[in-house]
Every structure is written in structure tokens, then in C-alpha cells.
Amino acid sequence: MSRLLARLGAFSFRRPLLVLTVWLLVLVGTIGLVLTSDTRIETSVKVDGTPAQEVLDEIQQEMPEAAGTQGSIAFNAADGRVLSEDDRALIARTVRTVESGDHVVDRMAMRADQMAELESTITDLAYEQAAEQMDEQLAQVEDGLSTLEATLADRHATVVGQIAALDQGAPVQPEPWQAEMMGSAQNPQSMLTALPELETGLSSQMEQVGQMRTEVDAAQSAAPAEKLEQVSDLMASLDGMTNDPEAAALLHEAMGPDTAAMLASSSDPIAEVDAAVRERLETMTAELENLQRGVAPTGEPLIVDGEAVPGVTVSDDGTIAVYSLQLTAQLDDLPSGTTEGIISLVESEVGSAGLVASPSSSLLPIEPPIGGHEAVGVLVAAVVLVLTLGSLVAAGLPILTALVGVAIGVGGAFGLSEFYPMTSTTPVLALMLGLAVGIDYALFILHKQRALILGGMSAREATSRAVGTSGSAVVFAGLTVVIALLGLLILDITFVSTMALAAAATVTIAVLISITALPALLGLVGERIVSLKHRGRAMIRDDSRPRASRRWAQATTARPWIAVLGVTVALGLLAVPAADMRLGMPTGGASPVGSPERTNSDLTAQALGEGANGPLLVAVERSGGDPDTHQLQATLAGLTEIDGVANAALRGTSADRSVEMYEVTPESGPMSEETELLVNTLREPGVIIGAEDVGVTGLTAINIDLSERLADAIPVYLAVVAGLSLIVLTLVFRSLVIPIAATAGFLLTIGATFGLTTAVFGTAELGRIAGVDQPGTVLSFLPIMAAGILYGLAMDYQLFIGTSIREARVHGAAPRESVISGFTHSSRVVVAAALIMVSVFGVFILTDDMMVRQFGFALAVGILIDAFLVRMTLMPAVISVAGRAAWWLPAWLDRILPDLDVEGSTLDQDLEANVPKGDSELQPVR
């Protein structure tokens, strides 16, 4: 590989314009991609396979109306006064204005729809129940009419017979029922007049009864509302038909007392049902409001003009109003600028009245926290480069190549973000790594070229050989970083995978630029890269005067056991706090004091309690089907009795009412250990009596599940990285002791880094001293990401120091002297590289974004520890203690291991033998 890289370096040096044009085209293409693409930054974190994500997906499927992004706006007076009636009315008007837009759920309209739906449901149910009762009574009416019809038919036949008998002069004896109807007209002459009238009346009654039976049949088959109307008409008809007391008595006797009483009643059945509906609606509305308020609500509803404003709660002291709103869809699916428009509208509405509106973090635009801090890191790196290389031109080249690499890598991440989910941390991490490794890798090659020039080579040959030797180490180190990052893909967490891919791509670009664009730039500069003055100084330099690096190596190896034990114990003590490390995701409460999201979090906690900043959504499935109000109330009461629950409220049910959704407000904040315990308690079987399945979701639950999943993966990932380290270092150094010691040193670095990060960001005492006013948790994906990144960077330093020591040993130096000599020759560039990385990572601690601050701190501390304590103190001491055994390798293993030639020894052999290998650039200068 070293020969191939040497040829590549020579070609780039000879054809600088061609190589630089290619990179310029890549850069221009990247800029064009960014300008023409729809850059998207994800605002939500999706972790497939976790319990909370599965429940959330189910809720979004069963209850799509609850799938939109939720947030809140806290209102308070700038002077801290109690909100006046005018203030409250203004807030209510502002809420109405906001919800009249296109992208915020109109809670007032939704409430009206719910009430209309509830009234319709109650009305339909009442009419159905009344209709069922009417069906029974109509059946009795039909029976009565049948009996009456038969009686009337018999009487009609009797009257017809009597009339015929009278016509023939036969005597007729009146029936008892006729006596009442005809009165004194019972002599033959009178009966001849009365019986035809009676026959006509009976015929009319029979016709009415037949018509009534038709009406009853129609009423029985009618819809509930129509049935009640027809029953009203039927009652009027029956009332007019029963003037015959005996017929009325027959009808009432056949129908039964209840039906007879109903028909005799003067009340309107429709009016009675409507009255029952109103009464039931009032009762259910009150019950629903209680269910939605919860068992133990904090604060009180905002009341304006006698009506509650949905979604707005006022603190008990009246100084704060919290408006909970829901967008019509997930923020990522809404037009860009949606939340900015909402916030601007609210601020313009209430600002003139002296009110302050503070939106929650979920409503604020997500922008990568990239600002002016990076320039500080680059400036520090420039100073280190000037001191190391002694030339402004030479110092500028690594910065230039690093900036080009970052522009391509980070720009590519932005340009392709419409095709994959990118969080705000993704480009920042790529920027961190791109700057750090881009400068360091170029520095390693440039430092080697400079040393070769000062040793007498021409700039062209020195560049070729530097790319073949140090470039080999750069490629190997970069490949190690990339492999460690790509190993994170096995976690199968989308946003972690995208961060790893973006960072790996940026590192790859940094490597490619270092071995192509940097030699091309050196070709443009030519021999001027090292001035004649510096060459003259090199010729007269007195190497007998011990340098600081040599004195350090001598001190470290003079009493190596002290160095080994001292570093091990110190790093072990620093790692102790890591045992209490709790992982989590930062919320608005972790933002800087005075920021809108922090103010919102503080005001919400003050008004509604700490848990209001991280409510849990509990989905309950029942096998029994449709729950009644008493069952819902019992569930709320049961949830409230669980330790750690401040309040529980009903948020809705699915269309088929098979899934109920409750909002559970914890007593503690979203990042507290008590809330995590509550989530686990709610998931225990049997916690809700009668529930077939209980799921917990919401941002807090998702963050907890994500943290648990990553925490479980850390030991496995560290084991994989440690195993990879052993294999890689064994291949490079052809030794067993050095890989084991170097890997153990890496684990010490990781432990100490995690310990310090936990102490600063996870504990109140040291955290507040360090300016972290809301300590508690370490970023959930930081440990595993930092482990991969630090492993790759640690291998850089191990390669450069280790190969230098190995080279001194190969040239015959004694064990201790090889350590001193190798350390002396390599430490200067390693110190410079480490300081550059620390400065680049360290400036990100100055940002306001808590995630970026933690990343910057962990990587800066990790580099400091690994470079100065592990690689430059512990490892020289271990190699010195081991002596010749440090380079021992079993013969059988030595035979099967490939020769990677990371240090470019084949180039040394070619030059020493003065044998061209297909490229004149490899021939020594005479």
C-alpha cells in the first residue's frame, strides 16, 4: 500500500491543477446540491422496536387525530403580576386566532364537534330505547285493536241480523251492549230507526280500527324518531275513536294498563325524550369534563365570558397560563416555517399588553448549532500549526484542506437530508470530526514531508515518500475510525446510523483529501514549503541538547512502574462516577437560562408541576369492548393511586372504543430517576385491573427506552471495539504485549472519559461548578458514539508513536533507548495533533446546545487523557517494562499474519537499494 500511495502522492505533486480541479468540481457540485435540495432536519426521534415506539405507532393508527406534534406556550406578565381579566381575555382571543389557522387543531371546534357527536349519540340512544318500549306497547295496541275489531265485527253482524228480523216482522230482543247505546229506543218501531244508525256507526268504527291497525304496522317498522311521531298521531286517533265507553273499555283491557295509560296521557313522547336527552347530555358533559381534567388536576381552566377555553390552564396563583396545543400533523410533515409563524403571531398578539409568550422546545425551529465557535477552534489550531511547522504557508495548508473536506462532507449531509432522517446533531458531529481529523491527517503528512526536506530530499520526493509512509498510517487510522463508526449501524437506530454514516463519510473525505489534494497543494508551493533559513537552521542544529520530549521519555522510562501504576490508578479513580451514569435525552429544562424553551419549562413546572414537562401517554386495551363512564373513572382512580403519579386524565378513545388513551402526569420531571421507575411500573402486568394490554409512550417514555437500549449495547460495542483493537494492533506491530496494553489503555480512557462526563453533566455538585445548572443525565447516544470515535482517534496516536518506537528498535536500539528515541521523534507531531483536536472539540463546549456541549466535552477530555496520559505516558512505560518481550510474537502467528507495512518500510528498502520500482519519484536525490 505504501508504494501505491507514494505513486499517488507523486502524481498529485506533478499534476496539481488536475487534482485540485477535480476537488473543486466536487466542492461546487456539493454546493449546488445544497442550494437545490430541500434540506430537512428531523424534529422527532423514532426508535423502532422499542415498547414506546410500538405503542405510539398503534395510537397513530387507531387515533390519527392524536398523531400531530404537541407543544405548549406559557404566558406570564413581564412584571410578574397576576393575570387580569383583560389579560385572560387577550390570551383567549390569541388562542382562537391561532386555532383558526390551517395547522393547529381547533380545540373549540373539536369540542363543539364532540358535544354534537355526544348529543347525537345520546339522542339516538334515547330514541332507540323509547322505540323499544314503544314496540312493546304497539304490540299490545295491535292486540287490543284486533280484539276490538273482532268485537265490532260480531256486533255489526248482530245488528245486521236484527234489522233483517225487524223487516220480516219478527221480534228482536236488544243485546245488553245495545241497551246502553240506544237508551229508550227499544220498542220495535224505535229500533227500526236506531239499528241502521248503530250499524252505520259500527261500520265506521270498524273502518277506523282497520286504519289504526295499518298505522300501528307502519309505526312498528318505522325508524325510532319517526316511530315516536307516528305514536303521537296514533294516540290522537285512538282518543277520538274511543267515545264508545264499552269499546274503549274493551280496547284498554286488551292493551293492558301501562299501554292504556300511555295512550290516555296527554304528554308528547318526543318532548319527553328530548327532555331526557338534555338531562343526560348535561350529566355526561360534566362527567367527560371531569375525565379530561383528571382526578387531581393542578391549576384551573381559563374561564372567559363564563366559558372554559379548551387547552388553557391557569396556575393557582393566577400568574401563569399554559396553553397546550396540537398541530394537525407531525412537524416534519408540515410546511417549513409553520411554527415560526405561530410563535410570531402569538408574540405580536400579546406583546403590546406586557405579556411574554414562551414556546416549548417542540415548537421551536431545529437548526444545527453551528456558529462562530468553530472559528475559535480553527484559530487555536492555526497557532499550534505555526508553532509546529514554523511557517504560515505550511500551517495554512492543513486548515485549507480540512475546511474543504468539511464543506464537502457536511454539505453533502445537508444536500442529501431529504432522502434520510437527519437530526440537528448529525452535521455538527461531522463538522467536529471533519475539522479535527482533516487538520491532523494533513499535519502528519506535512510534518513528515518537512522532516524529509530538512533531511536533504527535494520537495517532490519528500512529498511522495511522506504520502507513502505517513499517508499509509493516515489511511489506516482513518479506516479504523470509519470501521468503528460503521459498527454503530448494528444498533439499528435510524438517527444513530445517519450520524455514524455522515461522520464516516466526512472522515473518508478527509483521508482522500490528505493523500491527494494536500500533495497537489504542496506541488504548487514547491520548495518554498521550507524556507532556506529553516534548512540552514536544520543543518547547524545541535541534537545533543535534550529536548523536552526526550526528557519526558527518560523520566517515564526511568521508573516505568510508577508511571504505569500512577496513570492506571488516576484513570481508575476518574472512572468511578461512571458507575452512576444515567442516560437520557435533554429537554427544554436543560436549555440555557433565559431561552424560550427553558422559560417555558420553568413556568410550566411552576404552574403545573415538574411532571407537566414530560407527561406520559398510557394506552389501554380491553377485551370487554366498549367501556362505560364508571369503568373509565375507576381506571383514572387506579392510575392516580400509583406511586409517582400526580394526575391522570382521559385523552380519548379509538373509533371502536377498544383502545383508551390516558395522559399521566408524573410527580417528577422527565429526566428524573423516579419518572423512569414510574414508566416501568405502568408497564407491569395487572397494574390496571381489567386491561388486556397496557402500553406507555410519549417523548419521555421514548427517551427512556432509547437510553435503555443504548445502555445495553455499550458493553457489547466496547467488547467488539476492544477485540478489533487487539486484531488491528497485532497486525500493525506484530506483537502481543503492545496490542493488549494499548487496548487496556483505550478502556481506561473510555472509563475516565465517561466518569468525568458523568461528574460534570450528571451530578449537581461538579455540574454547577462547571456551569451546568440542570445536571442529571448524560446524552443517551454519547457513550457509544464517543467510544467509537475515541477508539479511532486513539489508534492514530498509537500508530505514530508505536511505529516510531518500532523503527528505532528495528535499527538496533536497546529496548529503553528505542522507546526514548521513538518517542522523541514522534511526540512533537502527536502533541500538536492532540492539541488541535482538543481545541476543535473543546470550543463546542461553548455552545448553548446541551447535546453538542456534552459531545465536545467528552471528545476533548477523551483526547487529552488518551494522548497525554495513555499514549505518551502509560504506553512508553509499559513497553519499557516489557523490554524485548514487548515485540515478541509466536513464530506460527508471525508466519500467518499479513505484512501491512503501515510505516512504509518497503519505501525505505527501495531507497536504500536505489532500485526504481516503476516510478522515478522513488529514487533518492543525489
From TrEMBL:
It holds the Pfam family MMPL. The lineage of its organism: Bacteria, Bacillati, Actinomycetota, Actinomycetes, Actinomycetales. GO terms for cellular component: plasma membrane. It is a multi-pass membrane protein. This is Transporter. Keywords: Cell membrane, Membrane, Transmembrane, Transmembrane helix. The chain crosses the membrane at residues 370-390, 397-416, 428-446, 467-491, 503-525, 560-579, 714-733, 740-761, 781-805, 826-846, 852-870. It comes from the Bacteria. InterPro entries: MMPL_dom (IPR004869), Mycobact_MmpL (IPR050545), SSD (IPR000731).
